[in-house]
Automatic annotation (TrEMBL):
This is Acyl carrier protein. It comes from the Bacteria. SUPFAM superfamilies: ACP-like (SSF47336). Pfam families: PP-binding. PROSITE patterns: CARRIER.
Amino acid sequence: MANDLSAQLQARFGSAPAEEQDSAPTGDAYSELTRLITKVTGVEEGLEREAKLEDLGVESLERIELAVCLEEASGVRLNEETMLSVTTVGELADYVEEHS
């Protein structure tokens, strides 16, 4: 999934979304997720665990980009069904935490 999604994103945006890696060490799944949501959407506030992804601007294309970034950062594969079933930042962070 990641390779196909990466190729689609690269074709659309001209570069793979996770090519820019921060040199700062990553923390827990929630911290990493909020960093990636900010990277994907530009949203820096309102990233509480109960915040709805949709309210943060995470729509279909952003969900794909977020899934690719999370997989590359954490090694956790996020399929389409999973990405559609989670609705909040906390649910997605918990999923990544449980599967890493």
